[in-house]
Structure to design on (156 residues):
């Protein structure tokens, strides 16, 4: 599964980057995220590992992720492995107009085990719908936070 979403934000790429890269502030920005714990020392960059806890499918779930790309203020990517799948998320921060940013988010999931492949075939459409709703909520929350309207647009 590979999905791409985008939103236009009335803020510069640096403002949007700051909201998205400030991992410890994600619970304040994204409604579905309840906690972020940075697991590595030093500044945030390639190799930074963190644990995100969010509400998914009606319950809290934690996922360990590692930043795999970090190009301020244009690209941020992180990877994770769970439930027999590899996950890759890429966020692109594209300047448009006067002081606006197009935030593009690409999400990919690749089953690695036979069980994950079978479950993906059976539950694929349902899972895809839930993932789409979650990503759209995250982007709406980021947009609202960057535009100074925290909590108005997203339902996380």
């Amino acid at each position: 599964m590979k999905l791409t979403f985008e939103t236009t934000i009335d803020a510069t790429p640096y403002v949007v980057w700051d909201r998205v890269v400030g991992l410890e502030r994600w619970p304040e920005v994204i409604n579905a995220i309840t906690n972020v714990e940075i697991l590595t020392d030093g500044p945030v960059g390639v190799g930074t590992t963190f644990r995100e806890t969010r509400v998914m499918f009606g319950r809290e779930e934690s996922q360990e992720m590692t930043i795999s790309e970090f190009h301020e203020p244009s690209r941020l990517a992180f990877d994770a492995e769970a439930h027999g799948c590899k996950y890759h998320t890429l966020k692109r921060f594209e300047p448009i107009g006067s002081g606006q940013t197009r935030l593009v988010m690409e999400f990919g999931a690749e089953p690695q085990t036979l069980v994950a492949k079978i479950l993906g075939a059976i539950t694929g459409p349902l899972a895809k719908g839930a993932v789409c709703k979650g990503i759209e909520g995250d982007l709406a929350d980021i947009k609202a936070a960057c535009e100074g309207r925290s909590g108005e647009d997203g339902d996380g």
